[in-house]
Specification:
Layout lengths: L2 H27 L30 H6 L3 E7 L4 H17 L4 E8 L3 H8 L9 E6 L4 H5 L6 E5 L5 E6 L7 H10 L3
Parallel strand pairs: 1-2, 2-3
Antiparallel strand pairs: 1-4, 4-5
Length: 185
């Protein structure tokens, strides 16, 4: 086989590889298109939510306006992935206090006694973390949550800027940077 034929074959293989890569890159770019807006655009009213410790009504929009952002985390004591990620999520949430970001721990489909027992493991929560129990079970429908854990990030004006589906590795430093970046801090 001549040298010219070898170079031709190598060139064709490289051209095919580059073409295939560009095709798949264009296909993947549609998944990460910044112009695609989330289904849940604004913070729902959630008039039925109350502080777990006091039972007083909770105004999420007021919390959002009085801070740099709001993270709403859906979880349950019955959820194994939630139980696994919660210690890291609480540490992560404590770090958000430095950036004046409030965190709502929203327990769903649960009983008060189980929540109390479960949360005793973690001691006192940071001031920016608010434990909430949706006894009526309406918030999942309002947010479009099908399974937990699921986390929403809202900016100061109540606009949904990101959604984290499923358990996350909240211990990674990149999560703090991402949250701060999403909120423009």
């Amino acid at each position: 086989m001549s040298t010219i034929n070898k170079f031709t074959i190598i060139f064709l293989l490289i051209a095919a590889s580059v073409g295939y890569s560009l095709y798949h890159k264009r296909k993947l770019d549609t998944y990460f298109d910044a112009s695609i807006t989330p289904i849940l655009k604004e913070l729902p009213e959630s008039a039925n939510l109350t502080y777990f410790s006091t039972g007083k009504p909770l105004d999420l929009m007021e919390l959002t306006k009085s801070s740099n952002g709001l993270l709403v985390h859906f979880w349950g004591t019955w959820c194994a992935p939630c139980e696994y990620e919660l210690p890291e999520f609480l540490k992560f949430s404590s770090e958000l206090e430095k950036h004046d970001i409030k965190v709502i721990l929203l327990a769903v489909n649960d009983k008060d006694a189980k929540i109390k027992k479960f949360m005793k493991r973690f001691g006192k929560l940071s001031k920016n973390i608010i434990l909430v129990h949706d006894k009526a079970g309406l918030s999942m429908k309002e947010y479009g949550v099908v399974k937990v854990p699921e986390t929403f990030l809202f900016n100061k004006s109540g606009r949904n800027v990101n959604k984290f589906v499923g358990p996350q590795d909240w211990g990674l430093p990149s999560y703090i940077k991402r949250i701060v970046s999403y909120l423009g801090l």
